[in-house]
């Protein structure tokens, strides 16, 4: 083990470097990059095992291990990701996202337009991808900029950072869901990712808002005269759903998951709610069941008069959105299975010793750095979340991040949040979101770097500081 450990660690580092190189330099899709790196690591591990005289191969069946890892992770998290993306697509296409935005604007008022942009962005991006959310809300942003005379760059940055914050931290957005599944958080634990992710994301959103207000006022937008007001944009929808109906597909699954977790909370020799009722609440609160109910509630939003193909088309669009996430998640599961087959985690544990050198909060910093490196290199926050969480899962015990707080898998939750913070740093030209924000806000590349890219750096670092503070107290 002592002789194989350094070689395995070097092989893992080389595999991570290969993913970054293939995604960043050669623009290869993350799915193929992870698969190639997985096979590279697997072959290296087989060679290292043979060269060091291991009693049994580190990887006995390379293809079988890859297939098994791919299938197991999708079996545990695949439907959850699919249901989450379908909910988001229906909310977008039925105008429910517009309803949520109007409700936020009514509560906050038009005297604080930047705050309104940030809050509505944060709210809408919980079920809807941040790219889609920005496109949906951009007519409102531009209308408010025109009515209030507020700089469109300020409002655009506030909206972008609000969307970005919940996108990387709060399920049912697929990225955080996939990361939670990858680090081994079961169905009962997903609600804790939501409950801890909400305050961390709000701190990140506040950091983005303050950057927009204090650092972008002097920047100028090249937006043309407004072509479509928000009121005109609303006429695209036959009838906007009410606020209660728009919120139900988001809040009901979260409430069900929370209820299931509370019911399963240990109490003496049993759980807080035992018997048939406890089993029912626990089953109902399983993420796959709760989100299926969310899908059904989302379908209620469909207009009564619609073309027969509308529902099929919208669901198909949701499946298309989910497909890249599913295949990247599966590839990540394959890589993780190969890592688990080697004794690399034991070697890292021997390096850490009693945890005084690298463990707990300091380990969170390592996960943040890896996610930030992957995000900056290949552009996708979702891919950075998935890849980093895959690599982290076999190493969590060695990093001191497998502890619990009662029934809360606090080490794994903190790991997901640290990875989410890293997945924010930074959004630049290789990120599709960078171009959505810059084009819909009328920013040239230099302005977008100074406004949006710098804001995502501030958000990521602020979120990291928040996660580290939580780690010091809770780990």
UniProtKB/TrEMBL annotation:
Superkingdom to which the source organism belongs: Bacteria
Alphabetized InterPro entries for the sequence? Glcn_transporter
Keywords on record: Membrane, Transmembrane, Transmembrane helix
Q: Name one GO cellular component term.
A: plasma membrane
Stretches that traverse the bilayer:
6-24, 31-53, 73-91, 152-170, 190-213, 246-264, 284-302, 314-338, 358-374, 381-401, 407-430, 451-474
Pfam families xrefs: GntP_permease
Protein name as it appears in the record: Gluconate transporter
Native organism is Streptomyces oceani
């Amino acid at each position: 083990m002592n002789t194989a450990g350094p070689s395995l660690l070097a092989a893992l580092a080389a595999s991570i470097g290969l993913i970054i190189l293939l995604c960043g330099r050669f623009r290869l899709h993350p799915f193929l990059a992870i698969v190639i790196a997985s096979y590279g690591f697997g072959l290296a591990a087989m060679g290292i095992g043979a060269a060091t005289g291991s009693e049994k191969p580190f990887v006995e069946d390379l293809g079988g291990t890859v297939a098994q890892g791919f299938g197991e992770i999708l079996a545990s998290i695949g439907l959850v990701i699919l249901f989450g993306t379908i909910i988001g697509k229906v909310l977008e296409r039925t105008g429910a996202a517009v309803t949520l935005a109007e409700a936020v604007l009514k509560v906050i008022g038009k005297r604080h337009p930047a705050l309104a942009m940030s809050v509505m962005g944060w709210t809408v991006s919980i079920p809807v991808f941040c790219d889609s959310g920005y496109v949906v809300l951009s007519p409102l942003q531009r209308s408010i900029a025109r009515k209030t005379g507020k700089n469109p760059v300020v409002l655009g940055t506030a909206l972008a950072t609000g969307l970005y914050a919940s996108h990387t931290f709060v399920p049912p957005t697929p990225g955080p869901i996939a990361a939670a599944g990858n680090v081994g958080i079961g169905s009962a634990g997903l609600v804790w990712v939501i409950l801890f992710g909400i305050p961390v994301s709000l701190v990140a959103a506040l950091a983005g808002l303050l950057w927009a207000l204090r650092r972008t006022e002097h920047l100028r937008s090249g937006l043309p005269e407004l072509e479509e007001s928000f009121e005109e944009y609303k006429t695209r929808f036959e009838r906007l759903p009410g606020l209660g109906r728009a919120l139900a597909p988001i809040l009901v699954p979260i409430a069900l998951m929370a209820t299931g977790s509370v019911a399963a909370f240990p109490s003496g020799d049993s759980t807080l709610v035992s018997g048939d009722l406890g089993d029912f609440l626990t089953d109902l609160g399983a993420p796959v069941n709760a989100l299926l109910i969310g899908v059904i509630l989302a379908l209620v939003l469909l207009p009564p008069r619609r073309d027969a193909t509308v529902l099929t088309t919208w669901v198909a669009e949701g499946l298309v959105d989910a497909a890249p996430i599913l295949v990247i998640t599966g590839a990540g599961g394959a890589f993780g299975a190969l890592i688990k087959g080697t004794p690399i985690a034991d070697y890292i544990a021997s390096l850490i010793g009693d945890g005084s050198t690298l463990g707990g909060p300091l380990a969170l910093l390592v996960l943040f750095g890896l996610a930030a490196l992957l995000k900056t290199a290949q552009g996708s926050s979702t891919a950075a979340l998935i890849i980093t969480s895959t690599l982290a899962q076999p190493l969590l015990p060695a990093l001191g991040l497998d502890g619990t707080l009662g029934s809360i898998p606090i080490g794994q939750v903190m790991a997901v949040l640290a990875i989410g913070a890293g997945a924010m740093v930074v959004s630049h030209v290789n990120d599709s979101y960078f171009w959505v924000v810059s084009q819909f806000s009328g920013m040239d590349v230099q302005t977008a770097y100074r406004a949006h890219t710098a804001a995502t750096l501030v958000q990521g670092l602020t979120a990291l500081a928040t996660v580290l503070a939580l780690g010091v107290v809770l780990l």
